[in-house]
Amino acid sequence: MNVPAYAFYGDDFTGATDTLAHLARAGLRTLLFLRIPDEIRLADAGPLDAIGVAGAARSMDPAAMHAELAVVGARFAALGARVMHYKVCSTFDSAPQVGSIGVAMATLRAYFANPLRVVVGGQPDLQRYCLFGQLFAATGAAEGEPVFRIDRHPTMSRHPVTPIHEADLRLHLHAQGLANLGAIDWRAYGRGEAALADHVDNALRSAPDGLLFDVQDAAHLRAIGRLMRDRAAREPLLAVGASSVAQAWVLADDARARPVVSEDVRPEPAQGPVFVLAGSLSPRTEAQIEAAASYTRMRLDPACLIDEREGNAYLNRQIDAMVALLRQGRHVLAYTDRARSAAGAGNALALACGALLEGVLRRSPVRRAGVAGGDTSSHAVRSLGAWALSWCATLAPGVALCRLHADDERLDGIELMLKGGQMGGVDLFERLLTG
Fold first, then answer.
1. Residue pLDDT, tens place only, 223-270
2. Cα torsion at 255, 258, 263, 269 (round to 10°)?
3. C-alpha torsion sign, points 259, 261, 262, 263
């Protein structure tokens, strides 16, 4: 049986597609499954160098996380993966009661016994940096945007579910159960591989829950990747972080340090009408909606979508209207009204958005679509009943265009863009049309 060396689980779908993109661009045969694959699905996939599962742990409570990740960990360990990457958002948005990274690490380390548990603290290509354990992030991924300490970030400090009020990742994760998290700061990388290895060995003597590694640039990632490869060759290893974990793994392989496929390669223009569903509440997505001049924009009332008595009727009316426009060849952008969003409605709203996406794609001629919002993407794509995603192209840093693999021929082959709330330039939805 084919044994993929690298395995990853994305705590939401958008982030999982970014990791998929980085591995695929490096020439690694990679497939992102939408559920844990059985032997039949693995046979359908063919030989793989890396395997992923797109999940929704970021929106789960601790009990649900443990139940899902225990199955994932056992499956990846049984496949013989050398690295188990628990992929989190590059801003580490999580909390003790929802999306707890501490719960994830406590669950997965039972299947990956290496005493070194790597926590990669930044992703420079998305302008996320970790220095002396402090996390910094730009307002978006484009060059030149202002960078904030994460507890002062204009979006993440006010996140509706997991606001971040502590920039020190050791303290942030301590609240999630990682009481003994060590740290390797950026100064250790310049002393050479042998000195870094000794430094890590010294830090492991206290049996920490994990070691947090600073990241400022690609050179730091390469040093981390070389260490990971060395230690994973001895014993399977658990790593936690954004797609920078995959970047580190690739950069440490001299044969793959330069991408096989350039990030500058863009997709062809869309053939036929395009549908976009924006469930994100971020200011960045709001600006992208405003700039989407080529679309017929349709506002969705969140309160009506989740209403227990009238929700289904409202949802069906919206689907009918959108399908009619798409059949006329018009592009449609559906978005939830921020002003009408109710506190605590996140999961129910994401599920309703999933039902809307499924209804539109099955009844319309759409072959390219986009979903904005991490939780929205996770629930929406799972509702389709597809089984995997493969990478097609990169639209912007952190935003991949993927091919949907489904048994239903109406869905198989659809090109799907999944994006987090802060990702992409203002013109992203227009670029989804033009490539």
1. 999 999 999 999 999 999 999 999 999 999 876 656 666 666 678 899
2. -50
3. negative
pTM of the model: 0.90
Cβ neighbourhood burial of 32 (10 Å; 0-12, 13-18, 19+) = buried
Phi-psi region of 92 (alpha: psi -120 to 50; beta: other; left: phi over 0): left
- Cα-based distances in Å from 353 to 121, 181, 312: 32, 38, 12
CATH 3.40.50.10840 region(s) of the chain? 6-251
The HSE-up count of residue 67 (CA atoms within 13 Å, CB side) is 6
- Residue 74 φ/ψ, nearest 5 degrees: -65, -40
CATH architecture of 274-434: 3-Layer(aba) Sandwich (3.40)
β-bridge mates for residue 99, sequence order: none
What fold, for 6-251? Rossmann fold (3.40.50)
Which regions of the chain carry the CATH code 3.40.980.20? 274-434
13-25 and 244-251 are packed helices; what angle lies between their axes, rounded to 10 degrees? 10
User: Amino acid letter at 247?
Assistant: Q
405/67 Cα distance (integer angstroms): 26
Measured on CA atoms in the order 143, 6, 119, 399, is the torsion positive or negative?
positive
| Residue pLDDT, tens place only, 291-326 | 999 999 999 999 899 888 888 999 999 999 999 999
> Rounded distance, CA 202 to CA 220, Å?
20
